[in-house]
Write a structure and sequence with these properties.
Blueprint: E1 2-7, H1 10-21, E2 27-32, E3 42-43, H2 51-60, E4 65-68, H3 71-76, H4 78-84, E5 89-90, H5 94-101, H6 103-113, E6 120-123, H7 126-135, E7 140-144, E8 153-156, H8 159-171, E9 182-186, E10 191-199, E11 204-212, E12 215-217, E13 221-224, E14 229-232, H9 239-259, E15 266-275, E16 278-285, H10 293-296, H11 304-313, E17 327-335, E18 360-364, E19 367-370, E20 373-376, E21 380-388, H12 391-402, E22 410-411
Parallel strand pairs: 1-2, 1-4, 2-3, 4-5
Antiparallel strand pairs: 6-9, 7-8, 7-9, 10-11, 10-15, 11-14, 12-13, 14-17, 15-16, 17-21, 17-22, 18-21, 19-20
Helix pairs in contact: 7-8
Bound molecules: adenosine monophosphate and glycine.
Adenosine monophosphate (AMP) is lined by residues 118, 141, 143, 150, 153, 155, 185-188, 192, 214, 271, 282-283.
């Protein structure tokens, strides 16, 4: 099988490694890929949003199966474009990717089908939003409707902050057109869990759980980022939580999308909060999490191409997912100053220590190859993942492995997975 993966971050590196393990993969391309991905796939210099170039490439290179890893091309309709030129593609079509592409859509869907989530109102008028805020309980949560690189959510502690936030989102357009509409949502408390799933539009299969660390600094301080590290499984994802979510959230979401004429094939990522009143959906994503994929996929025993094909062809009911009975921890090595301002182009040393290892991995997020050297090329640079018999062992090994890598301005959190001590 000739496979094309679209994207170029740590998640796509994890997907590429899984595809490379499949005996069915004869040739793997990745657009645009990165320095790490180029070890297992041929990287092609086409951006993930260059749809015409991507479809032309896929046809010219007789691609049998395309996997779209990133949210922007999914929401923009790349799957539809690929299908239109006869390329079988894993991921939701545009009309289903709206589950991630519009928070107002996903909130309305949950309300209509009784899927547990925070109470909310949608607004496309700034004055009406302000009037609502005047009467609302604080703290309160404001969300730009569209994609905003995971940054379009503001938690406001008082009315003043909320008014300023609404202005930033709706008038100043801090998150661009994503802020033309805004969701105002009840503030909830509890632990967060990420649950990834495969679905063929009818059947849903749940992967092992994970937890992300979104804030930049130790102890969950500092700005929100794309994710500074993950661990899997989450000890807080108990059998009771699993049972509740299976009864009220997972299948209900797939069925709701089908009822709306928006059959969803691909990965649904459930961002859950375990509140005192029970699990609630914080958000949906239409793709693997990054860096959740980096701790979930290395633990999956199935051939990823078999599972993805079953999603596209509609026979996921034939597939049972299997995960290793162990744990994994991923520590992100970022460039100092991320997510605000940071330098690029620093040489990365120590990468060879990870070659050929089956229990530790160095996933590339923002790197590039130049003159035979691997250089930093983004805020999140690498994701160092280790597997262990349990979370503590995996965490110790992952942090040990971070010492093998060196580059100017290397920054990481030191408490990834620390929450497990309280479990
Ligand atoms: P989202 O992009 O919707 O997942 O939101 C980003 C982060 O904001 C989440 O991971 C939570 O930490 C926080 N958040 C979102 N919605 C709420 C809410 N209703 N109550 C409390 N925190 C929230
Ligand atoms: N790590 C969170 C996300 O991928 O959206």
């Amino acid at each position: 099988m000739r496979v094309l993966i679209v994207g170029g971050g740590g998640r796509e590196h994890a997907i590429a490694l899984s595809v490379a393990k499949s005996s069915r993969a004869d040739k793997i391309y990745c657009a645009p890929g990165n320095a790490g991905i180029s070890e297992v796939a041929e990287c092609v210099a086409i951006g993930a949003m260059e749809f015409d170039k991507l479809t032309e490439f896929a046809v010219a290179n007789k691609i049998d199966f395309c996997i779209v890893g990133m949210d922007d091309p999914l929401v923009g309709g790349l799957v539809d474009k690929m299908e239109a030129v006869g390329i079988r593609t894993f991921g939701p079509r545009k009309n289903a990717a709206i589950l991630e592409g519009s928070k107002a859509f996903s909130k309305d869907l949950m309300k209509k089908y009784g899927i547990p989530t925070a109470s909310y109102e949608n607004f496309d008028d700034y004055d009406k939003a302000l009037a609502y805020l005047e009467k609302a309980d604080m703290p309160i949560v404001l969300k730009a409707d569209g994609l905003a690189l995971g940054k379009g959510v503001l938690i406001c502690n008082n009315l003043e902050e909320a008014k300023a936030g609404a202005r930033q989102i709706m008038l100043d357009k801090k998150f661009g057109e994503a802020g033309s509409r805004m969701v105002i949502e009840e503030f909830m408390t509890g632990r967060e869990v990420s649950v990834l799933s495969f679905t063929d539009g009818k059947t849903i299969r749940i992967m092992t759980s994970a937890q992300d660390h979104k804030r930049a600094g130790d102890g969950d301080t500092g700005l929100n980022t794309g994710g500074m590290g993950t661990f899997s499984p989450s000890p807080f994802y108990t059998e009771e939580v699993d049972k509740f979510c299976k009864e009220h959230i997972y299948q209900a979401t797939v069925d709701a999308m089908r009822s709306e004429g928006r059959e969803f094939k691909g990965v649904i990522f459930f961002g859950l909060m375990l509140t005192p009143k029970g699990p609630r959906v914080l958000e949906y994503n239409a793709r693997f999490g990054d860096p959740e994929a980096q701790v979930v996929l290395p633990r999956m025993k199935n051939d990823i191409l078999d599972v993805m094909e079953a999603c596209v062809d509609g026979h996921l009911d034939d597939v049972e997912l299997e995960f290793e009975d162990n744990a994994a921890v991923c520590v992100v090595l970022a460039s100092d100053g991320y997510p605000v301002k940071y330098e690029k182009g620093k040489e990365i040393k120590g990468l060879e220590a990870f070659k050929g290892k089956s229990d530790m991995f160095c996933f590339h997020a923002g790197t590039k190859l130049e003159g035979g050297k691997v250089l930093t090329n983004g805020g999140r640079v690498l994701g160092i993942t280790a597997k262990g018999a349990n979370l503590k062992a995996a965490r110790a090994k992952a942090y040990e492995a971070t010492e093998l890598i060196d580059f100017d301005g290397k920054y990481m959190r030191h408490d990834i997975g620390k929450a497990i001590d309280e479990a």
